[in-house]
Amino acid sequence: METSAGGPLLIVGGGIGGCAAALALARRGFEVTVLEQSAELKEIGAGIQLGPNAFRVFDALDLREAIERVVVYPDGLVMMDALSGEEVTRIGLGQPFLERFKQPYGVIYRADLHQVLVDACRAEPAIRLLTGQKLVDFEDDGRRVRVTTEAGATHVGAALIGADGLWSRIREKVVGDGKPHVSGHIAYRAVLPAAEVPSHLRFNDMTLWAGPKLHLVQYPLRRGELFNLVAVFHSDRYEEGWDTYGDPAELHQRFSAACEPVQQLLSKIETWRMWVLCDREPVSDWSQGRVTLLGDAAHPMLQYMAQGACMAMEDAMVLAQRADQHRADLAQAFLAYQADRSVRTCRVQLTARLYGAAYHAEGPVRELRNQFLRSRTPEQSRESLAWLYDPI
To answer: N or C: which end of the chain has fewer CB within 10 A?
Structure first.
C-alpha cells in the first residue's frame, strides 16, 4: 500500500464527509485512519436530499448499487404556498431532468447513506476506523502531524483532514474565526411511518410549503416506508443547540396561520428533534501546512439548498484527486484542493441564505416570489440549477 513517509492520512470525523474522504483516498492508494469521537459510527438526523452531483460521487466510488437499495426517487421538486395551499412551482425529475443532468435526484435517510459509506470503508483494507477518539490538540512539524485525544492516545500521520463538522476543533487553530453564526432559524425534524401520513398528502415529491418566516418540507424515505418532515421557523429563543427536543407548543403557534394540509401534517408528530441552524462566513483559506478542512468544518451552510452532504462528498473526491497528483507535497495538494473548492462552496453558502429569504418571504415579497417562479418554463427552472448540478 502506497502512502506518504509520515504514516497514514488522519481524518478526524467519521460522518458522511469523513467516510467519503477515507474511501476516495484509499481508492487512490493511500492508507487512512479515521478518528471518530463517538463510541460508535452512526449518524443522527432525518432525511437528506441528493442532487445529481452526489450521484456522480457514488458512481466514482462504486457505491451506486448500495445506494439504490435505500434511496427514493421523487417525481418532482415542488414549492407550495403554506398560506394559500396553492402550488407555486414544480421541477419535474423525470426524463427531461435525467437527459439534462445525466444523473437523478434522490432522497435518503441520513443514517442509510452513512451506513453505505461505513460499510464500504470497512471493506477497504487501507482504512482503519477508530471510535472513542475525541481530538484534544494536534501539531504539524512540517514532516508529519501528531494528534492527541481526550483518552490520552496519540496518532501520527502524514497529514490531517478535519471533517469534524460545524464546531470543528481543527478549524479553531487553522482559521480561528470563533463560533458559528446563529441564523435565528430553528429546524424541527421528525420521521414517521408513511401509513400515518394522510393518503391525500402522501406525495412522491420533495415538497416544500413556503410561508412567512417559516416552511415545512416533506418527502418519503426508505422505499416509501417512512416520511420525513422538517419544520423551520424564525425564533430568537435559542443561541445554539443540536439534537435536542423541541417545544411543540411553539411550533404550532408559529404555524398557526398555515393552510389545512400543513396543519394536518404537523398534527401527526408529537415528539420533534430540534436544531438551531447555523453557518459561517465563507473563507478561502482553510488549509495550513499538512492540515486541511472538509465539509462543514470548511464551509458550513444553511440547509436551504440541501447541499451540505453533497458538498462534503464533492470535497472528498477533489481532495483525493489533488493528493494523488501531489503525493510528495501534501501541503501543496491541500492548497490546490482549497483553490478548487472555495469559490464553488462560497456560492452555495451564500445562495443557501438567499433561498432561505425567498422561502420565508412575506407581504409583497412573497407575492413577487410566487409570480416570478410561476412565470418560468420547465426548461428555465431546470437550467437555474445547471451551475450546481453540471459536472465540476
So the answer is: N
CA angle 341, 344, 345 (to 5 degrees): 80
Alpha helices in 216-298 (DSSP H): 248-254, 260-267
Residues 150-203 have pLDDT tens digits of 989 999 999 999 999 999 999 999 999 999 999 999 999 999 999 999 999 999
* pTM over 0.85, yes/no: yes
Asked if 250 contacts 272 with a C-beta cutoff of 8 angstroms, the reply is: no
Q: In this predicted structure, which of 129-138, 231-240, 303-312 has the lowest mean pLDDT? A: 231-240
Q: Could you read off the pLDDT of 334-350 as tens digits, one per residue?
A: 999 999 999 999 999 99
Helices 308-325 and 330-359, axial angle in degrees (round to 10): 160
Q: What angle do CA 200, 268, 205 make, to 5 degrees?
A: 40
Bridge partners of residue 192, in order along the sequence: 227
Can you list the alpha helix ranges (DSSP code H) found in the chain? 16-26, 52-60, 64-68, 95-101, 110-122, 169-174, 248-254, 260-267, 308-325, 330-359, 363-375, 378-383, 386-389
Task: Give CA–CA dist 132/295, Å, rounded.
Answer: 21
What residues contact 330, with CB distance under 8 A and at least 6 apart? 4, 9, 158, 159, 290, 323
**Structure-block grid coordinates of residue 389:** 448540478
